[in-house]
Amino acid sequence: MCAGTGELSSILMSSIYSSYFMNDLCPSENITASFHPHPLRLKDAHETPYYCVGCKEKGLGKCYQCEDPENCDYHLHRQCCDLSMLCESGHSSSIKFPFLESKKCDFVFQKEAPGANQRGCDACGRDVKGWSYQCKMCKIPHYLHPCCAKLPINQKGEKGIVLDLKAKTSSKCLECGSKNISQGLRGWFYASNCGKHCYHVGCVMDMVLKNLEKGGHGCDDGRYLIKETNDERKSCSCESLTRAQSGAITKRSRKVGTMKFITEATIIVLNLIISAILGIPITSACVAFYNLF
Fold this sequence. Notes:
This protein is of the alpha+beta class. Helix content is 26%, strand content 23%.
């Protein structure tokens, strides 16, 4: 069943470009495209990372995979594949974001990677090595990975928690402790409506990717500790975490040391951000979050 259309309100788009978003909400299971000699099949890769040949980034979640995976290791983010198909059909694609200070900033999809020594992705701060959105309307060029361009503007979770995607905030990221994700690049944030939670998109993405590189065995640097109270011990995870996972987190929370305390609200916030940046259901995001620890 196709997802709801609430995602459409997250960004402003042209009438032509809206067709891409409708296709994203109702993706085709099997496709053929001129940019690959074999048929491509939509696959759920919520636990196994892949390398997208389009944007040259690691992916987790839905992707298009070659129907001959044993002989052809070809994967495309669903977003990258849909954009490429849209461009092949003769439509131009551009996108604007209502929260950016520069209202003239107009991002256009490009298959040509930016040249060397260019800025990283405005959203996550990572290098742009392949397909991307590029804006050259401003004095300083701006770039976005296709998946970053699809980040939802709002995320709603349990306990009335609402996250807003922002390009500028007065708060520092709770992960890196800075307002900038890298030198000269602020990066985009998800900030909570209560004002207590603020995380760089790129920082949470790095947490997940580093965990994948370790084989999904979680962080081993002892930075985190679940904050245990009587109420939170009963519901320290979001609704989709299993009792076994919740119990395991509770056991780990008894470790002692100088660590960051994670409250129930923080767990909900990080689950929402993981779901947003990876484009995976909240159930899979909860598993990804649990595997970090």
